Amino acid sequence: MDHRILAALKYIEQNISEPIDLGEAAAKVRLSKFHFERLFQAEVGESYYAYFKRVRMHNAASRLKHTKQSIYEIAIAYGYGSNAAFTRSFRSFWGVSPTAYRSDDSFWDAETFHRHRHEGVSLAVAPNIQIRDVGSYRCMFRRYYGPYTRLQEIWRDFLDRLPEALRSDDEIEARFLGRIYDDPRVTPPDEIRYDCCYVFADDEDARLQMDEVRNHLVTTDAGLYAVIDNTRDPRPRPEIYAYMLDKWMPSTNYNYSDVPGLEFFAGCPVEANSTWRPVCTMLVPLE
User: Fold this and answer.
1) Whose CA, among 107, 109, 184, 268, lies 20 to 30 Å from 199?
2) pTM for this model (two decimals)
């Protein structure tokens, strides 16, 4: 993906509650509105405004399901000035009102949803969950779209395209993380976002200044996370996240967050994703 569009996506997603028009986004990456609009469509596969609205609507839908926030609070969180404006936008996108969406549990039960997609998803056994304050990480990343079942293929592509200067690291010392955004019960498979990241241990690393690295940098969000070690007895990815969001979080004082979750891989991420039971440490952001 063109690094300027990548920068625009990062800017949009970090400021999703703000009314960012096309001209502002284009100026942010130093392109004319005309060139930016054409390049965005070519790289992302949809218009700037369609993408912006879709991300907002998917985030809002997740909040309706995963929090007890009022519709007004959710409307304000995504830049709408009133319930009415939010409801009109939500209905035009989803075909139902926010209230109807929240109350409809069809296909929302995780075990039912995943039963026809995977085998063995069960929320009966709780994973070991720890709450930690986690700092930020400076990373080189690439954005991918597609179902989580493609993650081994996605990671293989990422490693194949790593700059040579990053390949020289000792395999044991190289650190990789994934940034995970979307609930597959909300977001269609081909629109699911996933960032593959190479983690720099030192903010003064000279390789951060290389053009092929500098144009693909992101800093992960520091904050409070629920942490699950999935390295010893790996469980299916959807099982872990569904348990966290559907069972554990409602029993606590924590809220769903739009900040991407993190998946840390101690070894090769291609091997770690060889099955749908990823060998990694999973971090779910909390509000």
Assistant:
1) 184
2) 0.89
